[in-house]
Specification:
This protein is mostly beta strands. 7% of the residues lie in helices and 31% in strands. It contains 10 helices and 106 strands. Strands 19-18-16-89-92 form a 5-stranded mixed β-sheet, with no helix packed on it. Strands 62, 63, 64 and 65 form a 4-stranded antiparallel β-sheet that branches. A 3-stranded antiparallel β-sheet has the order 1-3-4, with no helix packed on it. Helix 1 crosses helix 10. The longest helix has 25 residues. The two termini are 40 Å apart.
Length: 1677
């Protein structure tokens, strides 16, 4: 192997020979590693390295800059060393001058791109690479080009770095593909022709045609003709050696004397007319003038029709079979053909010069489309006659811009909209919503619509500029008077709305035609429960006259309503009472009982603790209550040691009634119990049970409750005191349609009402809370109706019926309402659309050719044809001409250019004619056929008659040669109708609106379902199965069938369920209500909400709820009498049990009112219903019940404690002690001590008003007070701690509106997709105006509909095939072939293209005379009929099928082509060398088929040699295209044949591969392909190349002598077995090579490893440490 290093003088190479041992190799490698200072050729191992040039620096732009680079000395191993080690004489420069580029150079320099060079194969650029042996698809190549930086001004070359500063250099190379050569492919031979002679020696021919032309250097086409001699037999007589050959006609020319003779004759005639005495009668003179004009037209004297009849001649010669001319007498003379004939002298088209350019079509300034078109034309002076040159275009156009000063701007168009309609909520309701019955109360999110129309945006400006121009023209502008307003600002908008124009003029996005809107939902007033009745107080404490007063109770507004508190129910109720007072004493409590006379027990009194309060409960000065006596001390008893002890009285119970009447009284009760019994002797006795309770009357006021009641506010009316004027809003109102204009007044009725009775006099109610009866209000502005001006009248296109009469049409104009009136504004006009008849011209516009009378037949002058033996002077073939003129459809004269533009093809103006000779039979033209009485019955005839002397000639009376009548059966027209095509879409009857061209409306409630009709086209055929008009079958063209478009059904849900109970009885919880699925949607109805796992739609609403923690309270009755268990009958004391009844009560503002179920109260708070204790004995200390526990101080710790106290009610006797009056217990967290914190609930679902469907709503959440053990408690516990409240309780939210998809109306039906045939369709479309939103009804998938067009026959002009080449009465020469133009009918389908049935030409009369778009009709053309013995070219073959030049399954395609060819036909063997060359021509095509070509073979019967042929993939046998194949061996017995490239049949009858290729077998064991194998070259002693290379053999079958540079043996190793798999020895060789490689690497490492030596001081010059620092090139380091 060879190794190389870069150095200053070259590359170090070590050569080893193949005969050296491995050890020598290792030693050499180690020696190389140890000594590196010099190479084996003695050159230095140090060299100069340079870095890249830096940026060009300098103070000036241009060539004055400089740039530098780094230069350093390096070792061949790559490390940096001192400069002194390198040769200083070879040191590169580190600085140079440069061009400093600045930004402005970008406009001066640019890249110049050269053309791409020819694609060169990649293999040619790779040294030693072999070209592939076989091309497959194409060869990869590379194209190069030159790219240079140039100075733009003079194309001077510049440095590439200048252009690279602005733009990277474009690529210099690109990949390309070199197509494989495509050989010529020809078809199989045709059958042999018959022998060219009937006797003697002739030729048989067979021909073939070209299928694929040779491209990309492929082999040329082989001979297309194959000849074979034939000898039918010896000739019995003299063989026909001569033939009469006719030549081509000479160019048309005039006889020399014809022009002078005509001029003389014309001059004589004119003189004679002038010499004729004048005609005085004006009518006669006019008739003569008309006749002269008609004759002049017939004479073709118009400059357009300068037609001259001349003559032309041709030669008739006698030729020998070998092609040489001989005397005419050698040919057998038959009737000699004409050698002279009349002709039209050709004249080229002559035109005038171009006119001046017309005005530019763009007459205004348009920035978007600034250019228009202008045209110019030229007139025809001379039409082409005969074979003259056709006329070029007579009109041309070019783009232009408007010229001149003061060019006005073009009209611009923009979209405008009407005002939004009122907001409607009902359109959002689902089908099942019950609120559809009452839409007036709906609110929330809704939908509003508007119309969109197009207007001219700058109409006022254009009108102003036009007025200025008009004034300038009229000279009315006063230059001295200065305008008071600048011109562009003096446009007054007197019209508030612009005139609508057609919508197609507006571009850009169409504004929304619908939008969501919001109707504010009225907020209902919510009030709190009634408070307690207050004390009897004066109505006005400042005026206390009289003794009448009121007790009041109040409630407050908890939710402010829409429109203010005036819409709330009454907030105050009053009850008359007596003895009112404004201030009164409030009892707070009683002090302890103090015995009289300073005794320790016995009767005493309790002082009352009172406050002075007013009627509202507010504390005031005690002096204010001076008018009322203060509460007296309450008598009481302090029991002595042997007395009975009673408990304190309980608080008075809630009053049983809120008021009193004759039958109803309110009662209150309080009770007390016995705590200790008296002693048997000397103690005060306990009272009986009746004395343990007290009852008193309460709420003694009568049940006569009064309050003020208000009626609704009236309408806002003018306030006479207001001076504002209610002006009318005539202009476009703002979005707030209820803008205030002035202040008005509203009034309402206020009356005093007695509850459950009705209205009473006002004095019964307190005057203080009386509501007001008048309030100010804002009057909305009046809005007048605003309409646009009328649009322009719709255009009136002139259309004509089949008879050519104008069709009457109507035109209309419209205007749109853009603002509806309100608040008493001016009403809209009723007339929004006008219609009138169009002005119809008397005659349909159009032009037609008028043909004039044929001139008489003109013969060739006699002196030119008198030498012809059969010619007669006054008869024979000639030519006649006629004139044509241009007329309007009403017959008036028109310019000839109009017919050239608008009329059909010009009629022919010349035709051949025949002047009958005396011997000829002359007959009249055929008459028309007689009429038939009925179809399919009888016959019809037509006749003609002999003229003049022909009546007396016997030969003319021969009715077989000259029939005088023709008879044919009457036509039998039978028609049958049948349906064709598919059914159309189901189409609803068109009863709705059609979308206006002036305004686009929203669909609204257009009917979209129900019964419609679908259509199927009908086709009508005659008895010959030809397509005819459907009217023949008495059909209007359709079958109609009823159909149903199912109506959409929305998802149906149940009504809302009732709200559930609040999830918590104390604090914040949630309550839920839901809806359930009743019916799923179908036919595109509104979708259901998301379904759960049971396929049920359940819609939930979750809202927070607050339960008052004091709503339900436990009420404990007093303890019962003791039940003593350990009875001391003597003293009635001891251990015992007390019980009491505990009930759950509904708490009201007046206290617990009624008993409810126990589960509603908190079970943890339930008081004890029984207790065990000791009943004090006489003389024992008696304490009252324990008071409440004191509150634990926070934070809760065990060191803190709480206490409760009691006080003695009866002192003990001497010697006895009272128990502790204080009870103490430690505070334990969540036992008797709690922390409190706020808890915020989750947001509720978005809550809407009851009458809203969607839109703006509110989400709420609740604040809860939670104890540290997780229990919700009354909010007051958190409020007492003054905890921070930082939460927002309400936020706004939006519920998406269920907007149904809204579509535009159907457009008008389109034009038919085909003008005729069976497959024509009409379409109409609609578009989405408003896409569905939320749960709205989705858009239907059908956005377009189709229906069939009425079937019309497709008529077309079509050529018949060319006739055989006809030569008059001779054997060969120049002749003519003819074809006819006929009318064909077809059904227009793809299958019928090129086919059809022949019909009468009248049916094609309305069509333009053209075949496949070609207006040049050619019905005859010259041809050549070969003479016997001539060798000639056949006619062109048909174009071959379109073939793609490609490679099958390779994805390579080089385009498609089709080809036609002309083969040679020969008749005489001796004339073969005179044959012309065969010819072919090709043309590109599209959609070519990609074929592949393969060899096929079969064994011939009774033959050992196989038949081999090339076959295309479509089954066609061809020549060419298949891959090269070696000729099979003659003794081959392989079956199947070995047709693969590089294969051959072995002697054993097995397909094998040639040397250098290995066999790849298919799954069936047959040879699939021959793959090239690697070539292993083993060098010999004389070979200097030590490399082992693997390459593909270029041609391994060549002998070694033909391969220069290769010596030694070449072994071909076969890695593949016959089955295509790798042989076993390949795996062994690979494993051995891997082991050997590891061994070699290990040995190199061990041999080259340095032994460890003691460290010593290295000499500085011995070996230097590599420098890794790159420096800037300075010599000093």
């Amino acid at each position: 192997m060879g190794l190389g290093w870069r150095g200053a003088a070259g590359t170090l190479r070590k050569r080893t020979e193949g005969s050296r041992y491995l050890l020598v190799t290792l030693l050499l490698l180690c020696g190389f590693w140890e000594a590196r200072t010099q190479t084996d050729d003695g050159k230095s191992v140090y060299f100069w390295e340079t870095g890249p040039w830096g940026r060009c620096m300098g103070s000036d732009c241009g060539p004055g800059g400089s740039q530098s680079r780094a230069v350093w000395c390096a070792h061949v191993d790559g490390w940096t060393t001192l400069h002194t080690n390198c040769d200083q004489g070879e040191r590169p420069s580190n600085q140079r001058n440069c061009f400093r580029v600045c930004d402005w150079h970008k406009d001066l320099y640019d890249w110049k791109l050269g053309a791409w060079n020819e694609c060169a194969p990649v293999s040619a650029r790779t040294f030693g690479a072999a070209r592939p042996f076989m091309c497959s698809g194409g060869e990869e190549g590379i194209q190069t080009r030159e790219v240079n930086c140039l100075l733009k001004s003079d194309s001077t070359p510049a440095e590439d770095s200048i252009c690279e500063y602005f733009e990277p250099m474009p690529r210099l190379e690109q990949a390309c593909l070199i197509p494989c050569p495509q050989d010529c492919v020809v078809s199989e031979y045709s059958p042999w022709t018959s022998c060219s002679k009937t006797c003697g020696t002739g030729l048989r021919n067979r021909v073939r045609s070209v299928l694929v032309p040779p491209v990309f250097g492929g082999t040329v086409c082989p001979n297309l003709t194959e000849f074979q001699s034939c000898k039918p037999g010896p000739c019995t007589g003299p063989e026909g050696m001569y033939s009469l050959r006719i030549g081509a006609w000479s160019p048309c020319s005039l006889p020399q004397t014809r022009t002078a003779r005509q001029a003389k004759r014309r001059k004589g005639k004119g003189q004679g007319l002038r010499d004729r005495p004048g005609v005085k009668d004006p009518e006669t003179r006019e008739l003569i003038q008309k006749k002269r004009t008609r004759n002049r037209l017939n004479r073709q004297e118009s400059p357009f029709w300068d037609i001259q009849v001349g003559y032309q001649t041709r030669d008739v010669i006698c030729i020998h079979r070998n092609g040489s001319a001989v005397g005419r007498n050698l040919c057998t003379m038959r009737d000699l053909p004409l050698t002279v004939q009349s002709c039209v002298l050709p004249k080229d088209c002559q035109l005038t010069g171009w006119t001046d350019w017309g005005p530019c079509s763009k007459t205004c300034v348009d920035p978007m489309f600034p250019r228009g078109n202008r045209t110019r034309s030229r007139q025809v002076l001379q039409f082409p006659v005969g074979e003259g040159v056709e006329c070029p275009q007579v009109e041309e156009s070019e783009s232009c811009e408007p010229q001149g000063d003061g060019v006005p701007p073009c009209a611009t168009y923009t979209w405008r909209t009407t005002e939004w309609s009122d907001c409607r909520v009902d359109v959002l309701l689902s089908q099942q919503d019950r609120r559809r019955n009452n839409v007036t109360e709906l609110c929330g999110g809704g939908l509003q619509t508007r119309e969109v129309y197009c207007v001219e945006a700058n109409a006022e400006l254009l009108k102003y500029l036009n007025d200025l121009r008009e004034k300038d023209k009229a000279g009315q502008t006063q230059r001295q008077q200065k305008p008071s307003v600048p011109p562009l600002l003096s446009i007054t908008f007197q019209i508030t709305a612009s005139r609508p124009v057609e919508n197609r003029l507006c571009e850009g996005p169409i504004p929304n035609r619908s939008q969501l809107c919001q109707i504010p939902c009225p907020i209902d007033c919510e009030v709190s429960p009634w408070g307690a009745w207050g004390p009897c107080t004066f109505e006005n404490c400042d005026d206390q006259a009289g003794k009448k007063g009121f007790k009041l109770r109040k409630r407050r507004i908890t939710n402010e309503p829409t429109g203010g508190p005036g819409n709330c129910p009454h907030l105050v109720e009053a009850v008359p009472c007596d003895e009112p007072s404004c201030y009164d004493w409030k009892l707070l409590g009683l002090d302890q009982c103090v015995p009289d006379d300073e005794k320790t027990c016995g009767p005493g009194s309790q002082l009352a603790q009172v406050q002075c309060i007013n009627s509202n409960g507010e504390v005031g000065d005690r002096n204010l209550c001076s008018s009322s006596p203060a509460p007296e001390p309450v008598p009481c008893v302090v029991p002595c040691s042997r007395d009975c002890v009673l408990s304190e009285w309980t608080p008075w119970s809630t009053c049983s009634q809120t008021c009193s009447s004759k039958t109803i009284e309110g009662k209150q009760m309080r009770i007390r119990s016995i705590l200790a019994y008296n002693a048997g002797e000397g103690g005060a006795l306990c009272p009986n049970s009746s004395a343990l309770q007290e009852v008193r009357n309460c709420n003694e006021h009568a049940c006569t409750v009064y309050h003020w009641q208000t009626g609704p506010w009236g309408l806002c009316s003018d306030d006479p005191s207001s001076t504002s004027l209610n002006t009318s809003a005539g202009g476009r109102a703002a979005s707030n349609s209820q803008a205030p204009c002035s202040t008005g007044m509203q009034t309402r009725k206020v009356m005093c009402v007695r509850v459950n009775v009705g209205q009473v006099p006002p004095k019964k109610c307190p005057d203080g809370p009386r509501p007001s009866t008048v309030r100010p209000c804002q009057l909305p502005c009046k809005k007048d109706c605003i309409v646009t001006p009328f649009s322009d009248w719709t255009p009136c296109p002139v259309t004509c019926d089949e008879a050519g009469n104008p069709v009457k049409r109507k035109q209309s104009r419209k205007r749109l309402i853009i603002q509806l009136p309100s608040n008493g504004g001016q009403e809209c006009p009723e007339l929004l659309e006008e219609e009138k008849d169009c002005e119809v011209p008397k005659v349909c516009p159009g032009f037609r050719w008028k043909t004039h009378k044929w001139r008489k037949c003109q013969l060739v002058p006699w002196f030119l044809r008198q030498d012809s033996p059969t010619a007669q002077e006054t008869c024979g073939p000639g030519l006649q001409t006629r004139a044509v003129s241009c007329r309007q459809l009403d017959g008036t004269q028109a310019d000839i250019s109009e017919c050239l533009k608008f009329a059909k093809a010009m009629p022919v103006i010349t035709q051949h004619c025949q002047l009958p000779c005396q011997d000829d039979c002359q007959l009249t033209n055929w008459s028309k056929f007689s009429s038939c009485t009925a179809d399919c019955v009888g016959v019809r005839t037509r006749k003609r008659a002999l003229i003049g002397r022909s009546k007396k000639k016997d030969k003319c009376k021969n009715t077989q040669m000259y029939p005088l009548s023709e008879t044919q059966y009457c036509p039998c027209d039978k028609y049958n109708a049948q349906p064709v095509g598919n059914w159309s879409d189901c189409i609803l009857p068109e009863g709705g609106r059609v979308e206006s061209v002036l305004g686009m409306k929203v669909q609204g409630d257009i009917k979209e379902c129900g019964q419609g009709y679908r259509y199927q086209a009908m086709v009508c055929y005659d008895q010959d199965n030809r397509l005819v008009e459907t009217l023949r079958c008495n059909s209007h063209g359709y079958i109609e069938e009823a159909c149903i478009i199912p109506c959409p059904s929305d998802c149906k849900l149940s009504e809302w369920s009732n709200w559930s109970r609040c999830s918590k009885s104390c604090g914040s919880g949630v309550k839920v209500r839901s809806k359930w699925l009743r019916e799923k949607p179908y036919n595109g109805g509104r979708p259901c909400p998301k379904l759960d796992h049971l396929n049920q739609a359940q819609v939930y609403e979750v809202v927070p709820c607050q339960s008052d923690c004091n709503q339900y309270v436990w009420l404990a009755e007093p303890w019962s009498v003791w039940k003593v268990s350990n009875v001391d009958l003597k003293e009635n004391c001891g251990e015992g049990v007390q019980t009491r009844k505990v009930r759950c009560m509904l708490n009201t503002i007046d206290g617990p009112s009624e008993s409810v179920e126990d589960y509603l109260c908190d079970p943890e708070e339930m008081p004890l219903g029984a207790r065990e204790s000791r009943l004090p004995c006489p003389e024992d200390c008696v304490l009252n019940d324990w008071g409440p526990w004191s509150r634990c101080s926070l934070p809760c710790t065990r060191t803190n404690s709480r206490i409760r106290t009691a006080y003695p009610l009866r002192s003990p006797s001497v010697g006895r002690q009272c128990p502790d009056t204080t009870d103490k217990e430690p505070c334990g967290l969540n036992l008797n001590c709690f922390n409190y914190f706020y808890n915020i609930t989750d947001w509720s679902t978005c809550q809407l008003s009851q009458n809203a469907v969607c839109g703006s709503g509110i989400k709420t959440r609740m604040l809860d007070c939670v104890r540290s053990d997780g229990k919700s408690v009354d909010i007051k516990f958190c409020e007492e701690l003054n905890l921070e409240k930082k939460w927002q309780m309400n936020i706004s939210c939006v519920v998406e509106c269920p907007v149904n998809c809204q579509l535009s109306e159907w457009s008008t039906w389109s034009e038919c997709s085909q003008t005729c045939g069976l497959e024509g369709k009409m379409w109409r479309q609609r578009s989405v105006v408003q896409a569905s939103q939320g749960d709205g009804r989705p858009c239907p998938s059908q956005m377009e509909q189709w229906k069939p067009c009425p079937v019309r026959p497709c008529y077309r002009w079509q050529y018949s095939p060319w006739s055989e080449c006809r030569v008059e009465s001779v054997v060969c020469g120049h002749g003519t072939r003819y074809r006819n133009l006929s009318c064909f009918v077809s059904d227009g389908s793809i299958d019928s293209e090129g086919e059809g049935s022949l019909v009468d030409e009248e049916l094609c009369s309305s069509l333009e005379l053209a075949v496949d778009g070609d207006k040049q009709i050619i019905l005859k053309e010259a041809c050549t009929l070969p003479c016997p013995g001539e060798c000639y070219l056949m006619e062109w073959s048909d174009w071959s099928s379109c073939v793609s030049i490609c490679v099958k399954d390779a994805g390579v395609d080089f385009g498609s082509v089709q080809v036609r060819s002309r083969a040679v036909l020969a008749q005489e063997p001796e004339n073969l060398q005179l044959c012309p060359d065969q010819a072919w021509e090709s043309q590109p095509c599209s959609g070519g088929e990609c074929y592949e070509y393969k060899w096929f073979s079969s064994i011939r019967p009774n033959s050992t040699r196989p038949l081999i042929w090339c076959q295309r993939s479509d089954g066609l046998s061809v020549t060419g295209g298949c891959p090269p194949m070696n000729p099979p061996m003659t003794n081959s017995s392989c079956d199947p044949l070995c047709l693969m490239p590089k294969s051959f049949c072995s002697e054993a009858g097995i397909c094998m591969c040639e040397e250098g290729f290995t066999e790849v077998l298919s799954s069936t064991g047959q040879l699939d392909q021959c793959a090239p194998i690697p070539v292993l070259e083993i060098p010999t002693a004389g070979d200097k190349k030590g490399d082992v290379k693997t390459s593909r053999a270029i041609n391994p079958t060549l002998p070694s002598a033909t391969q220069p540079g290769r010596t030694g043996r070449t072994w071909y190793l076969q890695p593949y077995g016959p089955d295509g798999k790798l042989k076993m020895w390949v795996y062994g060789v690979a494993a051995g090579a891997f082991v050997l490689l590891i061994f070699i690497v290990s040995m190199i490492y061990l041999a080259c490893k340095k032994p460890k030596r003691p460290q010593r001081q290295r000499q500085q010059n011995n070996r230097l440490k590599p420098l890794t620092l790159a420096y800037d090139g300075d010599t000093d380091m």
